[in-house]
Amino acid sequence: MTATATYMYAITRPIAPEAVSDLRGIGGTPVRVIEHGELAALVGTVDLAEFGERPLAQHLADLEWLGRAAREHDEVVRAAARLTTTMPLRLATVCHDDDAVHARLDSVRGAVLTVLPELDGRDEWGVKIFAVADRTTPAETAPAASGAAYLTQRRRQLTSRDEWIDTATRTAFRAFGRLAEFAAASRQQTPQDQRLSGAEHPMVLNAAFLVSRRDEDAFRAAVADLAAEWPPGGVVLTGPWPPYSFVPNDDR
To answer: CA nearest 125: which of 179, 71, 192?
Structure first.
C-alpha cells in the first residue's frame, strides 16, 4: 500500500463539502474539506512517493513539474475564492495526515481569523511597469570607425541606458503611490529578471494591490490613466487573483 499525506491548498471559513465535490487538484485528485471550529481547509490526498521530503525537493527543481503543480494548485485556490473568502497557502504545503491539518488550523487560528476579514470582498491585482524605449530613449549610433571609438560609444550607450532605467524606476515608484490610494493594501515585489519574465524591456515595478470589488472600476481607470502616460506596453495589469501577496508568510 502506497503511503500518503494530506496536501493543503487554502484556508477558509467553514464551507459545505458538496461545494467542492467536483473539484480536482494536484494530479487530478479530489479536493475535500476539513473543518476545524471556525475554520476549514481545502485539502487533497497525495502520494509520498511524489510529495515526501526528498522527492519533493527534486520535483521543485524541475520546472515542468513545478509549472504543472503550480497551475493545479492555483486552480483550486481560484475555485475556492469564487465561493468564499480564501487565504491561499504556499505551493506544496504538505501535512502528515488529516490530524496534522487539524493541528495546523488550531495553531494558526488567531492569525487567520484576523486576516480573513481584511480579505473579505477584495481581490489582488498585479501591475508591472517596464522601461519601454520611446523616441526620447538614446538610440544606437552608427558603427564606430575604430576600436577605441567603439569602446567610447559603448560606454556612452550603457551610461545612457542606466540613466534611462533609473529615471523610469523613479517614475514607476511615484506611480505605485498613486495606485496605492485606490487599494486597501499594496506590496512592491522584486522586479523579475528579463530572463524570467520573457519581456523585451527591463521591469522597473512589480506590484500587487489588494482592491475592494467596489473600488475595482476606479482602480482600473487609474491604471488606464497611468498606461496612457507610458509608451505602449509599458504598463501591464493582471488580475483579479486570489490574495496570494497579502497572506502572512508564517501562516502559509
So the answer is: 179
Q: What does the pLDDT read at residue 135?
A: 46
What is the dihedral sign for C-alpha 165, 171, 177, 183?
Answer: negative
- In whole angstroms, what is the distance from residue 115 CA to residue 251 CA? 10
Residue 24 is classified by DSSP as B
* Contact of 228 with 116, CB cutoff 8 Å: no
- Using DSSP's 3-state secondary structure scheme, residue 35 falls into strand
Q: What is the pLDDT of residue 74?
A: 96
Q: Which of 215, 133, 131 is nearest to 179 (CA)?
A: 215
Cell, residue 169 = 524606476
- Terminal alpha carbon distance of the chain: 30
- What's the mean pLDDT when you consider all of the chain? 87
Length of the chain: 252
pTM to 2 decimal places: 0.81
Please answer whether residues 34 and 14 qualify as being in contact, where contact means their C-beta atoms are separated by less than 8 angstroms: no
What is the pLDDT confidence band of residue 197, given thresholds at 50, 70 and 90? low
Rounded distance between C-alpha atoms, residue 85 and residue 116, angstroms:
7
Q: Which residue has the cell 471556525?
A: 38
